[in-house]
Design a protein that fits this description.
The chain is an alpha/beta fold. It contains seven helices and nine strands. The strands form two sheets. It has a seven-stranded parallel β-sheet, with helices on both faces. The chain has a two-stranded parallel sheet with strand order 7-8.
Length: 229
């Protein structure tokens, strides 16, 4: 796979880096010499300091206007922010998943038309937007809209089982409880091609900026393959 022309050292925006996946992506970016600057846009502060890291708190992703000027000049966005659909109706989940994501992406597209946009979706997302599962329809609609926005490139990451690495924990209580129970089986689970890790997702997102992929919706095996490039 040939390297994408026009990219050397890149500046990236990461959302959701206080969550399990986003934190894994952030740590990989800070460790990768190709990433010369990281802007973390979160709803709550991080506990990480790094010379290449800048942090901005944005309470309403549906209105990124107050930080508009700070969003200029970036090569990629790794959008890792998301919420669980448990206990939510479709209207509320659509607002937090579809509207906030696309509003933020709209501003980035206007400011950085040559950007690569990577979105953390999920296994089972429904691209037809017509399926039985509410969350899958909403995620599918979000994916479809992002892919049509006209970014230089865009990838929808659809991980299934994600194993946390580097001491990362989930902020969702039931998820962390499940991970704790499963931890003795991590070495076995890691042998399955469909299973990925927080570190591999981070490396794959960075590599997606440099190595264009024919597939735009990446499941576990494709994520792992891209991480190893």
């Amino acid at each position: 796979m040939s390297e994408r022309k026009g990219f050397r050292d890149v500046k990236v925006i990461i959302t959701g880096s206080t969550g399990m996946v986003g934190r894994g992506v952030l740590l990989e970016c800070l460790d990768d010499d190709r990433v010369v600057a990281v802007l973390a846009v979160n709803r709550r502060p991080l506990d990480i300091q790094h010379p290449r890291l800048t942090e901005i708190i944005l309470n309403d992703f549906g209105n990124p206007g107050p930080i508009r000027d700070e969003l200029k000049g970036y090569d990629a966005c790794f959008f890792c922010m998301g919420v669980s659909s448990v206990g939510m109706d479709e209207k509320g989940y659509t607002r937090l998943t579809y509207h906030l994501t696309t509003c933020f992406a709209d501003v980035l597209k206007e400011l950085n038309p040559g950007m690569v946009f990577n979105y953390v979706s999920g296994a089972g997302t429904d691209s037809t937007e017509q399926g039985r599962l509410m969350w899958a329809r909403v995620k599918g609609r979000t994916e479809n809209t992002l892919l049509k926005m006209g970014f230089r490139d865009a990838y929808m990451f659809r991980p299934g089982i994600i194993l946390p690495e580097r001491g990362i924990r989930s902020r969702t209580g039931w998820v962390q409880g499940l991970l704790t129970v499963m931890r003795p089986f991590f070495p076995l689970l890691g042998k399955f091609k469909s299973v990925t890790t927080t570190s591999k997702i981070g490396r794959a997102m960075i590599n997606a900026v440099y190595f264009p992929q024919e597939m735009k919706r990446l499941k576990g095996p494709a994520i792992n393959a891209l991480a190893g490039m």
